[in-house]
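Course assignment 3, question 2. Fill in each field.
Student: A.L.
Task: Predict the tertiary structure for the chain below.
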Amino acid sequence: MQKITISNVKSAEFTTTNLNEFFEPGKEHKRSFEYQKSAVSNPFTAGTGKLSVCFYTLQPGKANYPYHYHLGSEEVFYIISGSGTLKTPDGDKPVSQGDVIVMPANESGAHMLINTSNAPLVYLDVDTVDLTAPEAAVYPDSRKVMIWKNELRKAFKLSDEANYLEGE
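Answer field:
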């Protein structure tokens, strides 16, 4: 049974993740996807719960993830401090301290947060999680889809679509 959790972000341990180095070490990329993150509530590691609650810090010039939208998880960002740009299907939107951004689980919720300022951008990220189902995200710019559940994490070009009965 899941219990009430109380955490203090001031004493939370933050880890740095550089997606560029994680997925393609040594390769040059158009943008740097790097962040510091503290997972206050993580159903993926706890094995229980429906909310992922994380604090992120983006340094100047960094982005959180490539432009994408989820097919299963809704997501909310609350900008605690700093400012930046949110890439959306309706164009780039300035965001700053106090802004709450709600992203539905569909193509109208596509997003990428970029720190375009000279100071750190700190935000709270809350996601809905369904541990019983795989999750998928679509990346409109690169025309990819990524599917994951537990240790399985695979990305495919949308152009690689196969007929459902092919090879059966």
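Instructor remarks: The chain has one domain: 9-132. The chain has a mean pLDDT of 90.
Grade: pending
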